[in-house]
Design a protein that fits this description.
The complex is a heterodimer of chains A (about 290) and B (about 220). By secondary structure, chain A is mainly α. Chain A contains 13 helices and one strand, in the order H-H-H-H-H-E-H-H-H-H-H-H-H-H. In chain A, about 65% of the residues lie in helices and about 0% in strands. Chain A is globular, with a radius of gyration of 18 Å. Chain B has helices spanning about 5-10, 20-35, 50-55, 55-60, 60-70, 80-85, 160-170, 200-205; strands spanning about 15, 40-50, 90-95, 105-115, 120-125, 130-135, 140-145, 150-155, 175-185, 185-195, 210-215. Chain B folds into two domains: about 5-145, 60s Ribosomal Protein L30, Chain: A (2-Layer Sandwich), CATH 3.30.1330; about 150-215, ACT domain (Alpha-Beta Plaits, 2-Layer Sandwich). The chains are: A mainly alpha (about 290), B alpha+beta (about 220). Chains A and B meet through helix 2, helix 3, helix 5, strand 1 and helix 7 of A and helix 1, strand 1, helix 2, helix 3 and helix 4 of B. Strand 1 of chain A pairs antiparallel with strand 1 of chain B, so a sheet runs across the interface. The complex binds iron/sulfur cluster (SF4). Iron/sulfur cluster binds near residues 167 and 223 of chain A.
Chain lengths: ~290, ~220
């Protein structure tokens, strides 16, 4: 429907429509689906996201590889009982991101958004903003649709896979999606949506994928936690009127280029980064992974 | 270039931790079961490459076994597939094996049937939960199962292809892709179509006596 994001933004502005609404129209015309069907599907997605982002908050879990499982609860308890540095709201979001990462690593049910490794960021954003603002479910669903459009652009022009683009493609994409969704839900302008998405990508451009022992556990979980921080900061900057001088499409293109230049040892192969530290190798050996 | 939909990005809903090592593995199991299409008493999984190395940490073994029992990638019973199989009286075994020149995330699923015959399928998990089936009982094939797929093995005689195309065109079914592999006088045909496959269509195609095997495989959702 649109060749590039500038056209997308222009179309939204000319027709006085939000990015979320135009995303809905595109999805309806793509598969000939009604608004009701799409909203019903989004609600099923939302339900799983709600469960996964809360399950770990008050429970000790144990992941398949045993590397993670208690972090969400630790952070949640710390937030409730102590005066934290980052503040209550942001920490509650981070705890939720950790929760989904844990559920994923324990073979629980999650929504790949856009991937399983980065599944914590979108739900953490949604259920923390819901606690803070009185948003209707419809506003949330439109925000999700906007995030879908952002993810689609990245998937098409670059990649959303850690094996292809490093973690910038997974947690970076998820943070960009969440940042754009926030701006859309809070009534920011269409160009602000994409400024926010650009900031989120730029913040972690070049981030490698180096899972310890090759498992989607650590450092994935903490990158999900920081991913939701990234989304909030990026959205706030855009809403404050800060602009990215590099248009979103070009940010995505450069992210793609960076991903291509990244050595394969740093792209999900667990042959570099944290995975090949002394401790990383020991963990792998102790788990009996060859 | 693939045109993504919203639910390719916000989805799938799946049991973690990995779209390739868990959801993809489960799809290989499911697809193998559908291709084989008969009851079995025992199943052996040969795990190759990264599937062999990190199977336990990703639940690849549980996901594969759940797949051959028909549990989908989003089924919460997936982690307990070992217990479910034991209850159902299905024997299972996992064997690390170098399957030769294959994608790193590859499994060979070997079914042992009641009559002691063996049926096997080889599939690879190629990323994002997508898979490729590459071998059925020694015949090389290549299909993803993302589109409705009809799989046919027939005696390599004249007229079979014509018969199949006629049935499909009468049923107003659009063929997206079609490939044929010939080996030992048997042709293996993989036909991807644009619409969902129903039993009726399969029965109509199966009226030719030269067809020795047929399966209709709809995409595995979830
Ligand atoms: S480190 Fe790698 S596996 Fe983990 S979330 Fe990032 S891209 Fe995914």
């Amino acid at each position: 429907m649109f060749d590039n994001t500038c056209e997308f933004i222009d179309y939204c502005i000319k027709n006085n429509k939000s990015v979320g609404l135009v995303s809905l129209e595109k999805e309806m015309s793509k598969n000939n689906l009604s608004k009701e069907v799409i909203f019903d599907n989004l609600k099923s997605v939302l339900k799983v996201m709600k469960e996964s982002s809360h399950e770990g908050l008050d429970k000790d879990m144990s992941s398949m590889g045993g590397l993670i499982g208690t972090e969400a609860k630790l952070l949640e308890e710390y937030r409730k009982t102590q005066k934290s540095l980052s503040g209550d709201f942001i920490l509650s979001a981070a705890a939720k991101a950790l929760s989904t990462s844990q559920v994923n690593a324990c073979m629980g049910r999650i929504v790949a958004a856009p991937t399983a490794g980065a599944a914590g960021i979108m739900p953490a954003m949604i259920f923390s903003i819901r606690e803070k603002y009185d948003l209707t479910e419809e506003q949330i669903l439109y925000g999700m649709l906007a995030s879908g459009s952002i993810g689609k652009i990245i998937a098409t022009k670059a990649s959303i896979s850690g094996a292809e683009g490093g973690c910038q493609a997974e947690c970076g994409s998820a943070a960009a999606m969440a940042a754009g969704a926030l701006v859309d839900m809070l009534g920011g302008s269409p160009d602000q949506v994409f400024h926010a998405a650009s900031f989120a990508l730029i913040n972690i451009m070049g981030l490698i994928c180096d899972p310890v022992a090759g498992l989607v556990e650590y450092p994935c979980n903490i990158r999900n936690a920081s991913g939701v921080y990234n989304a909030y900061l990026s959205a706030d900057m855009a809403l404050a009127g800060i602009k990215s001088p590099i248009p979103f499409d070009q940010v995505v293109e450069s992210m793609n280029q960076v991903g291509n230049l990244m050595h394969t040892s740093l792209k999900e192969t667990a042959l570099g980064g944290l995975a090949t530290t002394e401790a990383g190798i020991k963990i792998k050996k102790d788990l009996g992974i060859k | 270039m693939k045109e993504y939909g919203i639910f390719d990005i916000l989805g799938p809903i799946m049991v973690g931790p990995s779209s390739s090592h868990t959801a993809g593995a489960n799809r290989i199991g499911n697809m193998s079961r559908i291709i084989m299409g008969r009851p079995f008493k025992k199943v052996k999984f040969y795990l190759h490459g990264s599937f062999a190395k990190t199977s336990v940490g990703h639940g690849t073994d549980k996901a594969l076994l759940a797949g051959v029992m028909g549990l989908r990638p989003d089924d919460e019973r997936l982690p307990s597939s070992f217990e479910l199989a034991k209850k159902a009286g299905i024997q299972f075994e996992f064997i690390e094996k170098d399957l030769g020149y294959q994608h790193p995330n590859t499994a060979k699923v070997e079914f042992h049937l009641e009559d002691n015959t063996i049926f096997y399928v080889i599939g690879s998990s190629v990323g994002g939960g997508n898979i490729l089936i590459t071998n059925i009982n020694g015949t090389e094939v290549e299909f993803s199962g993302n589109n409705p797929t009809i799989l046919i093995r027939n005696k390599d005689t004249k007229g079979v292809i014509a018969h199949i195309s006629t049935v499909l065109s009468i049923a107003e079914v659009n063929i997206a892709t079609m490939s044929v592999v010939r080996k030992d006088n048997i042709a293996t045909m993989v036909i991807e179509i644009d619409s969902y496959i129903d039993e009726n269509l399969i029965e109509k195609i199966n009226t030719s006596e030269d067809i020795v095997y047929i399966a209709g495989i709809n995409p595995i959702e979830g």
